[in-house]
Specification:
single chain; 644 residues; alpha/beta; Translation Initiation Factor IF3; Alpha-Beta Plaits; 4 domains; eight-stranded mixed barrel; five-stranded mixed β-sheet; 18% strand; rod-shaped; cyclic-guanylate-specific phosphodiesterase activity; Rev_trsase/Diguanyl_cyclase; Signal transduction protein; transmembrane helix; HAMP_dom
Length: 644
């Protein structure tokens, strides 16, 4: 019950007590007044009756006495009239049972006892006592008057009480309105949203409460901001190159291994390797500051090209080497973009050094076709860079895919996706504390290749992206998942949505509508890659609200590696996050990784967000995850994906 309702109940209780006491006092006073009226009425009647009956009583004229008494008694105001002679012998007695009107309830009669007094009058005639007259008024009259007065009092009380309660309620709500703001602040604070009240109430007690709440909000916001800054600083120190701001060697290799060797979901693309020819000589020619500016220019050019890839891998792998894994597969487009980078860097070098003209950098490109490993791909890219250096040309590209075979594969993938000819595999996400506890199964889309062998998403996903069929693929996967959830309501499935689907609000509305048919919508989990969340934050917020209203769970995949940080958690507030496998791969051997993962888990748990670890392969990793209080784990330690 709200404080306003409690205060209203208290006021009403006081009013009821007050009116009860008032009604009691008024009733008692009215009762005494009515009894006095009955006494006065009975005394007057006895007096007047005595004056009239005195000669008849002396003569003992019973007929006249009876006629007179009957005439008065029939008026209905009397319960008994007795006429006795001087020897107290009855001359005439007239009485009637004590009748009370039906309008007066019995409980009222039993509650209030009224006994009318019997009034007497001695009658004399010619200075001799003729007898005595006894008159008792009817009690029903008093009950009727008293009940009518109580009814009117109660009716006015109810009407005035309702009117008073209405105005008191308005007044209390106005006075206590700042407490609603405090309640909103507390609820928002639990979700890491910081709201301060601008309107400070004039009431001293409420003013102190609002000021104290505002102060607490500021302190908590400062605390969380400092915590986020500290974790960001840890991430920059452990995984970021100080000069360029790109991923450092260790982080770059981990991400490259994750995408190519483990997840294998990048699709076809190219690894671009940029090497500064002789950094020591460059430092001598330009000086350290200008040489650093040239390195920054190289990193900036690769960053600009990386914007054309949805989830690129970009980093500095040595003091003179930078790489970019891009999903650009069109040779002409790639040649055009790299030539533009080469020209811009040559112009930059000329501006820094006006006197010397020489080849200062070389770019090598190796095509990735989902078959080789990350180490092989990097070796090929370095070989291409060496070829460019030997040929004294700034750029050399290797392309191993023929246009004809590429066109055939594109057509094959397009037919499969358009016709919905896909099947699903699933991998469990298990509780870290209990290996047998399954949190959900993440599902993966698969198609048959041209030889009718199953192929992983990485082998065809880039083609799907190029053909703008990602939304169609997501819809087919979701249809299969929803069918399975309807057949098996105890199953919980996680579906990863693409960037294209997240941007398509019509698709999001379709998903909400389709999921409404599920017996348990909470058994469907929608996951979105962290990069997609950051690139479409406003759409994701709207989508997240709709999922929450429908009871569908929401998670962020590949969490913790984006340079933009994780402050978005405070607004998106997912149900769970999946820490990227590149942070888990060396967890059992890297104290830096353990410290960073612990920080991420602490932030997530402070927001009531569950944490899962991706790509767990060894028991030693699992033991450390248990120590770090990670909630769930996913990886080959629990088995490879199997057909759903």
């Amino acid at each position: 019950m709200s404080i306003v309702n409690q205060l209203m109940a208290a006021v009403l209780a006081v009013l009821i007590g007050l009116v009860s006491g008032t009604v009691y006092l008024m009733s008692d006073s009215s009762k005494e007044m009515l009894i006095h009226q009955l006494e006065s009425h009975g005394q007057d009647t006895a007096t007047h009756l005595g004056l009239y009956l005195a000669p008849y009583m002396a003569e003992r004229d019973l007929a006249s006495i009876e006629t007179t008494v009957n005439a008065i008694f029939d008026s209905g105001f009397y319960q008994q009239i007795r006429v006795v002679d001087a020897n107290n012998q009855p001359l005439f007695v007239k009485n009637t049972p004590a009748k009370i009107s039906e309008s007066v309830p019995d409980w009222f009669v039993n509650l209030v006892e009224i006994t009318p007094p019997e009034m007497t009058r001695e009658i004399t005639n010619q200075w001799q006592k003729a007898g005595t007259i006894f008159v008792q008024s009817r009690a029903g009259y008093a009950y009727e008057q008293l009940w009518r007065g109580a009814e009117n009092t109660f009716a006015w009380f109810v009407m005035l009480s309702l009117l008073s309660m209405f105005f008191i309620s308005l007044l209390m709500r106005y006075i206590l309105n700042p407490l609603k703001g405090v309640e909103k602040q507390a609820l928002a604070l639990s979700q890491q949203k910081y709201i301060e009240q601008d309107n400070i109430p004039g009431t001293r007690e409420l003013k102190q409460v609002v000021l104290a709440m505002n102060m607490m909000v500021r302190r908590v916001r400062t605390m969380f901001d400092e915590q986020a800054k500290n974790i960001e600083e840890i991430r920059r120190t452990a995984y970021q190159d100080d000069l360029t701001g790109l991923a450092n060697q260790r982080a770059t290799f981990n991400q490259l291994n994750e995408r190519i060797d483990y997840r294998r979901d990048f699709g076809a693309g190219n690894l671009i390797h940029l090497q500064i020819a002789d950094l020591q000589q460059l430092n001598k020619e330009l000086g350290l500051e200008k040489a650093n500016n040239f390195i920054l220019a190289c990193a900036g050019q690769l960053k600009e090209l990386a914007r054309q890839t949805e989830e690129p891998v970009i980093g500095r792998i040595s003091i003179s080497e930078l790489i970019l894994l891009s999903d650009i597969t069109d040779p002409d487009q790639l040649q055009k973009e790299l030539s533009k980078i080469a020209n811009n860097l040559q112009d930059c070098y000329r501006q820094l050094n006006n006197t010397i003209e020489r080849s200062i950098f070389f770019i090598g490109v190796s095509a990735y076709d989902e078959q080789g490993s990350s180490k092989e791909l990097l070796v090929k890219a370095r070989q291409a860079t060496e070829k460019a250096c030997n040929d004294n040309t700034p750029l050399f590209c290797q392309n191993t895919t023929s246009p004809e075979s590429q066109a055939n594969w594109h057509q094959h993938v397009s037919n499969k996706i358009v016709s919905g000819d896909i099947f699903l595999q699933a991998q469990p996400v298990r509780e870290v504390a209990d290996h047998n506890g399954v949190l959900h199964h993440e599902i993966y889309a698969r198609i048959l290749n041209q030889d009718n062998h199953p192929c992983m998403a990485g082998e065809f996903i880039s083609v799907v992206k190029q053909l703008n069929l990602m939304t169609a693929l997501d819809k087919s996967v979701l249809n299969l998942a929803l069918e399975r959830l309807i057949k098996d309501p105890d199953l919980t499935l996680g579906v990863n949505l693409s960037n294209d689907s997240v941007r398509d609000m019509d698709f999001c509305d379709w998903l909400i509508s389709a999921a409404s048919t599920l017996p348990q919508p909470g058994h469907l989990c929608i996951e979105i890659n962290e990069t997609s969340v950051l690139n479409n934050l406003s759409q994701v917020n709207l989508f997240r609200d709709k999922l929450k209203q429908s009871g569908i769970r929401f998670g962020v995949d590949n969490f913790g590696i984006n340079p933009a940080g994780f402050s978005y958690l405070y607004t998106v507030h997912p149900d769970y996050i999946k820490i990227d496998g590149s942070l888990i791969r060396e967890l059992d051997s890297s104290a830096e990784d353990r410290f960073f993962v612990r920080s991420l888990v602490t932030v997530a748990h402070s927001l009531d967000i569950m944490t899962y670890a991706e790509h767990v392969e060894r028991d030693s990793q699992l033991n450390h995850l248990r120590q770090l209080e990670v909630d769930g784990s996913q990886g080959w330690i629990h088995g490879k994906p199997e057909q759903l």
